[in-house]
C-alpha cells in the first residue's frame, strides 16, 4: 500500500470554494475512477489556514498512474473544474508526497 498526501495551497479566501468543489464535484469523480481517500483535513494551526491536506490510498504507483491519469483527462472533470475557477483561481500550488507505511504503522 502507498499513501499519497496532497496539500493544496489556496489563494486567500478561496478555501471554501475548494471544499465546495470537492464535496459537490471532485468526490464524484474519485468514486467514478475508484480513487479511495484516507481522509481530508484543513489546517487548525500552522503556517497557513488556506490549505487543504488529503490522503489517497493506492495499491501501487502503477494503479495511481492509471486511475489518476484517467481522472485528470476526463473532459467533464476538466470542464467543471474550469467553471469553478472562471472568476478567480482557487489553488495557487499543490504539493504531493508518496508515503509507505512502516512495519509498526497502524495503517498498512
What topology does this entry show?
Layout: E1 2-10, H1 15-33, E2 36-42, E3 51-58, H2 61-72, H3 75-84, E4 91-99
Antiparallel strand pairs: 1-3, 1-4, 2-3
Number of helical elements: 3
Q: Helicity, in percent?
A: 25-40%
- Care to count the β-strands? 4
* C-alpha-based Rg, rounded: 15 Å
**Broad shape:** globular
Q: Strand percentage, roughly?
A: 25-35%
**Any low-confidence stretches, pLDDT <50, length ≥5?**
none
Q: What is the CATH architecture term?
A: 2-Layer Sandwich
CATH-derived topology:
Alpha-Beta Plaits
Query: Overall pLDDT, averaged?
Result: 96
Sheet having the most strands? 4 strands, antiparallel
List the domain count as a whole number: 1
CATH class: Alpha Beta
Secondary structural class: alpha+beta
User: For the largest beta sheet, what order do the strands appear in spatially?
Assistant: 2-3-1-4
Distance between the termini: 6 Å
Order of helices and strands: EHEEHHE
InterPro entries: Dimeric_a/b-barrel (IPR011008), NIPSNAP (IPR012577)
Domain NIPSNAP: 3-105
Pfam family, one: NIPSNAP
Protein name: NIPSNAP family protein
Give an account of the 3D structure.
With 108 residues, the protein is of the alpha+beta class. The chain has a single domain, classed as Alpha-Beta Plaits, CATH 3.30.70.100. The chain is 38% helix and 31% strand. The protein is built from 3 helices and 4 strands. The protein has helices spanning 15-33, 61-72, 75-84; strands at 2-10, 36-42, 51-58, 91-99. A 4-stranded antiparallel beta sheet has the order 2-3-1-4. Strand 2 and strand 3 form a beta hairpin. Helix 1 crosses helix 2 (61-72) and helix 1 runs antiparallel to helix 3. The chain is globular. Residues 3-105 form the NIPSNAP domain. Pfam families: NIPSNAP (PF07978). This is NIPSNAP family protein.
